[in-house]
Amino acid sequence: MNASSANLTGTPHDQNVCGAMLLRRTAEEILPVDSRLRPRVPAIGVAGLQTAGRLLSSARLKPRRGVAVLVVLLVVIVVFVGTAAFGRWIMHGHKLSRIHQQQLQANALAESGLERAIRKFQEDNSFAGDSWNVTQPLSRPGIVNTKIARDDNAITVETIALYPSDSQLPRRAVRSLRIDSSQPRVSSTESEVE
Fold it and tell me: Residue 141, Cβ neighbours under 10 Å: how many?
């Protein structure tokens, strides 16, 4: 018997080990060196390829699902922040519109108070001014204070209007008219009560 057959005559375990070593040695001798470095892929059929493809595609979809959730969450956050900013912008515009409307109303009250004071002064030369509480037809009350001052050759009529008078920060408008013996002159200023 030769040496290779002597190795095969031991116990079944020894025979398997020896047979595997013999096959490995024979494969190393037959195969070129570079083919031993490449891993061998077992041959699988079409059904095996389809199953492997499904496993690979489902493995690829799982991270994409996570990314999709993050993208959707990011879009929801951006939409929420945009909506909140738009709402604040609308509320700020509404507040500015209300302030502007109140200032216009105070200006109109000051003009009306000036005309009223001139008319009262024409009726009674001793008229020195008064306080006029305006409630109708306004939605909120307003106050117009009138003062008439006399100089040597001029009369100054000044009105201060506050609207709405029941507010903590009413809008204020001041109108004054100086009547000289030569030519009347109207000056006006607008300011907010602090």
Answer: 16
Termini Cα distance of the chain: 120
Residue 150 has pLDDT above 70, yes or no: yes
Q: Express each pLDDT in 79-129 by its tens digit.
A: 999 999 999 999 999 999 999 999 999 999 999 999 999 889 888 888 888
Return the SS3 of 127. Answer: coil
| Residue 135, φ and ψ in degrees, nearest 5 | -120, -35
Helix (H) or strand (E) holding 143: strand 142-150
pTM above 0.85, yes or no: no
Report how far residue 156's alpha carbon sits from residue 121's, in angstroms, rounded to the nearest whole number.
11
Give the position of tokens 């305006």. Answer: 134
| One-letter amino acid for residue 192 of the chain | E
- CB proximity list for 128: less than 8 A, separation 6 or greater: 147, 148
The SS3 assignment for 44 reads coil
| Domain parsing of the chain, residue ranges | 3-60, 97-192
Q: What are residue 173's phi and psi, to 5 degrees? A: -135, 135
Q: How far is CA 29 from CA 2, 36, 37, 93, in A?
A: 20, 11, 14, 88
